[in-house]
Amino acid sequence: MATFVLVPGAWLGAWAWEETARALQELGHTVLALTLTGLGERADQATRDTDLDTHVDDIVASVEQADLRDVTLVAHSYAAAPVTAAAGRLGSRLKRLVYLDSAPFAEGMRMLDLMPSDVAEQLSRQVADHGEGWRLSMPPFEALGSFGSLDGLGEEQRGRVRALAAPQPFGTFVQRLTGPDQADPGVDRVLVACNDFRALMDAEVPMLAFLNQPPWRRFDLHTGHWPMLSVPAELADVLHAAVA
């Protein structure tokens, strides 16, 4: 059985993994779902100084303080950025990297680089006008289509997200990655691709071509960008298969 550390994407906390974590535990796995600084139940810890490095430190500290070994580290969406940097600091504790509808960040990359320039500018204006210059509230669901497919998110799931989502410290989107993936070459690397990401992979987009080649292993999920909310049990089955 595996030891999973689940890292949520922007605006989310450990709460987003509840059903998937429960299903993995029922399958016999050890599961630690993280809430990064400034999000979820840690929303009151957010400051102007909360940035990408803060979240990298969160991940490393959580694994080390729990003295976890043979870790399968799962990064959903935005979490790909801090997980990429944390991977090199976890050393022999890390057994497997799983990028869930996401991909490793290159050194010097930042979250805003993944968005069309007009979307990035709109978010920056929103932070300046309504977020005291450092907090980004979760956009309306219509706008979230810029981040990924909403397939599978019904009214119940959307209501839960809207009620529990916390403003994202904008420094985590603005700061560029300074620690590239320096995980041991022997670390298992897995991609779990949902609808939009599957389409990009199947179209053989050049910048993602490496994900279709060894040592990467790919699993597909027929749902939108938030599978832990839209198909939590199916996601647990895929993660279980990835470590089997």
TrEMBL record:
Residue span(s) of domain AB hydrolase-1: 4-238
Organism of provenance: Kitasatospora acidiphila
Keywords tagged on the record: Hydrolase
Pfam families (alphabetical): Abhydrolase_6
An example molecular function term from Gene Ontology annotations: hydrolase activity
Protein name, entry field: Alpha/beta hydrolase
Highest taxon of the lineage: Bacteria
Keyword Cytoplasm: no
